[in-house]
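QA checklist item 7 of 12: single-chain prediction sanity check.
[x] sequence parsed
[x] length recorded as 336
[x] structure emitted
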Amino acid sequence: MSTQNTSIKMVRALGFPWATQDPFIFCAYHNDRYPKGNAQLGPDASLGGRAIGQDFDPSNDWRMYHGKTVPGFPHHPHSGFETVTIGKKGLIDHADSLGAAGRFGNGDVQWMTAGKGVQHSEMFPLLRDDADNPLELFQIWLNLPKKSKRVAPHFKMLWADTVPVYEVDGVKVDIIAGELEGHKAPAPAPDSWAADPANEVAIWTIKLSAGKTFTLPSASAGLNRSLYFYQGTTVDADGQEIPSQKILDLHSDQSTTLKAGAEDAYFLFLQGKPINEPVVQHGPFVANDREGIIQIMQEYQATEFGGWPWPRPDQVHERSRGRFAKHVDGRVEEKA
């Protein structure tokens, strides 16, 4: 649905995964009401009737995804782009082919540059055996330009207490990338398209309390910006009533005024200067042409991007471990 005389270029259905614009190439939202956990950190519930290893049924309260014992995504490769994983609620266990590992969530963000190739696993351990284990996260794929497609893999943590929050009169914005009203996000991974301020990359989550108003400020012309309205009833956007489960593609050089309806409204906001290069994607690999895909697939078959140094493909850490990150250089960050 197109619009006129507003900042809104187009309104689209949300779907799954969420449609994105250059420089973003993928966005998935996971919201699972997991039950209490068992001794293996999986669900203390029957798995009967589920497509184990391929459980994406949206009618279920929770899903195993590719996990067979623990929900999540056992080891798999990536190349040519970055993953930005925003753990809003619950915990995620990371392990990778470089020997790095971590446990993060409850507001933390992991920014991983796949670059020339890495394997990793992303598992959702159900640590509580006496209560439910709700999980909510976004995973966003941010493309790399051709000059950075072959950089060394890298990951960094943006811990919850380092992610700036703009909060005023019923408006709460978590700023994972970009800047709002003097609140500037931590530096992203060093080879990221977002590392250059000229690219004006913004990744925000927005909560707008019922009846409250927020104006999304304008930026430079020619950026791609999308606003994902994923939870709530309705929002008034520049005078147009928009129901939930919609994507608003916006003109970047115009501000957009939002007013929540009868319920709190929740949004994900993605913005960036387009890379404007060809994108060829084959599953977890992204290149600029078909030859690039063939090359990276051959490299993966030959090297497995360093192999898998962990005892399990669905590697999880011990139940008692807190939030932490172990980096490739041996540096360990421990959080409460």
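[x] summary fact logged: DSSP finds one helix and 26 strands in the chain.
[ ] second reviewer sign-off
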